[in-house]
Amino acid sequence: MGEVIVVTSGKGGVGKTTTTANIGAGLASMGCKVALVDADIGLRNLDVVLGLENRIVYDIVDVTSGNCRLRQALIKDKRLEGLHLLPAAQTKDKTAVSPEQMRELCGELKKEFDYIIIDCPAGIEQGFRNAVAGAEKAVVVTTPEVSAVRDADRIIGLLEAAGLYEPKLVINRIRLKMVRQGDMMSIEDIIDILAIDLLGVIPEDELIVITTNRGEAVVLDQNSRSGQAYRNITRRILGEEVPMVNLEEEDGFLKKLRKIIGLK
Amino acid sequence: MLEFLSRLFSRDNGSKNVAKERLRLVLVHDRTSISPQLLETLKADLIQVVSNYMEIDESALEVNLDSSGNTVALVANIPVKGMKRTANRRI
Amino acid sequence: MTCSKRDVRGEVISGFAEGIPAGQEDLVDDNTILVQRTLRSGQSIHYDGNVVILGDLNPGSEVVAKGNVIIMGVLRGVVHAGACGDENAVVMAFRLQPTQLRIANHITRPPDDEPEDTGQPEMARIKDGVVTIEAFQTGGERQGKAN
After folding, report:
1. Given a contact as 3+ CB pairs under 8 Å, which chains touch C?
2. Is the distance from CB of A194 to CB of A167 less than 8 angstroms?
3. What pTM did the predictor assign?
4. In Å, what is the CA distance from A246 to each residue of A15, A186, A187, A202, C45?
5. How far apart are CA A85 and CA A28, in angstroms?
6. C77 by DSSP, 3-state: which?
7. Which residue among C100, C110, C112 places its CB closest to the CB of A56?
8. Which among C56, C40, C49 has a CA at the least distance from the CA of C13?
9. Using one digit for the tens of pLDDT, what is the confidence trace for A247-263?
10. CATH number of the domain at C32-146, out of 2.160.20.70, 3.40.50.10470, 1.10.1370.30, 2.60.40.1590?
């Protein structure tokens, strides 16, 4: 039986979809069978982030309304064996699916996949309720901004109300230079406020924009720091003990190393 | 250079501390779902009740919701000027 | 794929049969609607006839037609012509850059590498069982047929 994990944040634009895609690709690259579910009906994005937008024939609403079988709607990734996408519908809205249908769908997917990762829409309305309905675990994504942290706090409360206790936190787009200058909340500051376990920290990285433009996952890039951060998250999900690297030190060391080698 | 020095010394006053403090206050209200207006009404009611029994300095009165760990406490700091011998309760 | 008018959220335009001009049955094989605007992401048109769009079809939009689909603009969305199995249906656009193109039971998508923009009107149709895309010719047989 697989495990259903919902990736949520409350606020939009903090990196839910990117995180979903990279966790999925990371797990699949380690040999897991993964299904990614885009629960953002009406504003689908996971397909373009994965570069699978031109393969969609059926979507989640077609499945829940009985237009097609689940197997027909699942799209295989072009690179990773074992990675599948169940796309959202673009021409419908959140009310096209009910929490009961989502629960049923997740139950169905669990039989076949090791991990089912649900990309939750922003907000706390029906889209959120649908996305969390079938989930067993939750990952909350935030950025080091007051608005994102506040919304993350609200979401943690709502997750608990929905029976999803102990969600794990991903802090995205952290800029170490600004943290060092005291102009950005640090990892400790955010953990201190939200009081939940940390799953990982993703540094701000231009490569994420570049890989997303191409429809690829940064987690597969062996040389990038953001890719490394997503690989660490993947391993923690698989139950490995991966120490939280002190990003600040690593940064300084890498910079020095680059200088020595002669890279800018 | 000057900028560097001032940054070095003002490290504790970076904007992140402002952010953290504001966030902390906002979250206390969010978590207890008490709005600032509600807190004001509570303050007024407290003054009314307490002044039935003692003379208090209304201007220096402070009412706050404090969160430590996972609990939230209502903390009222009410400076007392003097006691009243009889409680003049309204009938 | 059902061919009845689907009750979907978004925009569904249902049609009604009009009289077909005498002597042109082979050209006007079904009723046709004219959509005088650009379709944006999330908007869709399902129609049991031909669809002509005076505008673009943006990514995320969808046109499903029982007959032919003609886009007087850029086709970037999903288009399905001959949705009830008509293999003679065609898709034509000033710029043919679909996310996905379907004719009858055939589904195609552009190659994964960068799509080349030919800069001219193109037409997709089924030839020998495969969807082929060719430059749209105004002269020759088609024009002759129309006259």
Report:
1. A
2. no
3. 0.76
4. 22, 12, 10, 12, 53
5. 12
6. coil
7. C100
8. C49
9. 544 555 555 555 555 55
10. 2.160.20.70
